[in-house]
């Protein structure tokens, strides 16, 4: 079990929470990654959110979730985890609206037959509330998601990368399949307007799943 290095910039409670997160990740990746790698990914994930966190108490949990995703991606890239399950990565600027809605739709429709991740070039501090409401109307809850950046291992692990409005900031790696979706940005729009974007995204997600030969609802 890894022992999280003491960080003087963190409170005692935060340090204890990171210790718990490190233990959880150690169990999840036992035999795949050692404590040094887990520590590095956990702490760099924590730092990604520290400067823009709205609720500080949630930082260790967000860091654990993000580190878990990154470690899964790294395992795929390094050939340590080969499941054959397609991975789609949805990218936009703030990871607060379009990419979160697309990820929610993809996950809802594909179930465990495919994996969806999302990220942003300039992550916001919270998910767009109108997007949350519009998705809830379809029985899809994205309220527990959080804006996050993309990382090299996440992009490299994706089978298809969907970009929406991040322009030149979107990462490009050789061998990845890229598509750009010209979908409107829901920022500042009311729920009726976001419904139109949601429905546009659903049509595109369904087409993508069909192209990936993933059975969906």
TrEMBL record:
SUPFAM superfamilies: Phosphotyrosine protein phosphatases I (SSF52788). The keyword Transferase does not apply. Residues 86-211 form the Phosphotyrosine protein phosphatase I domain. It comes from the Bacteria. Keywords: Arsenical resistance. GO terms for biological process: response to arsenic-containing substance. This is Protein-tyrosine-phosphatase. It comes from Pseudonocardia kunmingensis. The lineage of its organism: Bacteria, Bacillati, Actinomycetota, Actinomycetes, Pseudonocardiales.
